[in-house]
Amino acid sequence: MLRYPCAFRTENANEYNAAQRIMPIADSTRLGTNVEIRQPGLVNLYGCSVGDGTRIGAFVEIQKNAVVGARCKISSHSFICEGVVIEDEVFIGHGVMFTNDRFPRATSGDGRLQTEADWSVERTFVKRGASIGSNATVISGVTVGAYALIGAGAVVTRDVPDYAVVAGVPARALGDVRVRGVATTTTEAA
Ligand SMILES: CC(C)(COP(=O)(O)OP(=O)(O)OC[C@H]1O[C@@H](n2cnc3c(N)ncnc32)[C@H](O)[C@@H]1OP(=O)(O)O)[C@@H](O)C(=O)NCCC(=O)NCCS
Which of 26, 72, 127, 140 is surrounded by the most beta carbons within 10 Å? Predict the structure, then answer.
């Protein structure tokens, strides 16, 4: 018996509810229609929402209360944590790491492991049409502007303006996608 199907595409949420018994896609996940997960046994999705037509690669984790919009591409090995809100038509490269705690600690003062009561989630926003290059890290609390382009390997520590190209550690302005002729219109905005 084939334990994991080779590819999976949603027609409606009920299909996922049935299929998740053999897949690490929790009941608490809210998936739109035509969400495409090519290696459904190799993702970890729980308590998040994913918009219509979004594609999710292998070894992607999306945590509870994270939001991914419609028609996004989430490439393999990326981590989208609680507190991250990604709008429609966003490209997330391979191995992109979001964060949600600027000063993380394993334990609290008395030596016990921290629980959710011991720290608070910092939010991060990625606006419509933005792209984040492979292996970039986004420090919590920032907003990546609409159609902005984050270079591969960047560490984003500050807000990125709409249409900006940034790269490096820490990420600094390199240019403007409109000057480079990169597409900045979408089906709804066009
Ligand atoms: C950031 C990016 C868009 C810049 O492209 P570009 O405008 O063609 O930039 P250039 O190649 O002209 O480089 C301009 C300068 O920025 C530097 N640079 C380019 N990309 C960089 C990066 N990711 N990190 C650090 N510096 C970078 C170049 O070394 C060059 O520096 P120099 O002038 O001192 O030589 C591109 O390099 C990039 O990282 N794209 C993302 C790729 C990716 O992750 N795709 C995912 C799907 S596979």
Answer: 72
| Residue nearest atom 4 of ligand 1, based on CA coordinates | 151
Would strands 124-126 and 84-86 be described as parallel, antiparallel, or unpaired? Answer: parallel
For the CA of 133, the nearest atom of ligand 1 = 44
Which of 135, 138, 174 to probe ligand 1 with, by most ligand atoms within 8 A of CB? 174
How remote is the CA of residue 13 from the centroid of ligand 1, in Å? 39
Instruction: Give the integer Cα–Cα distance in Å for 7 and 26.
Output: 18
In angstroms, rounded to a whole number, what is the distance separating the alpha carbons of residues 86 and 125? Answer: 6
Helix (H) or strand (E) holding 85: strand 84-86
SS3 144: strand
Burial label, 185 (beta-carbon count in 10 A; 0-12, 13-18, 19+) = exposed
Sort residue 168 into left (φ over 0), alpha (ψ -120 to 50) or beta.
Answer: left
Within its chain, how far is the Cα of 87 from the centroid? 10
What's the pTM value of the predicted model, to 2 decimals? 0.89
Question: How far is residue 21's CA from residue 52's CA, in Å, rounded to a whole number?
Answer: 22
Instruction: Compute, in angstroms, the gap from residue 177 CA to the centroid of ligand 1.
Output: 12
Report which protein residue has its CA nearest ligand 1's atom 33: 174
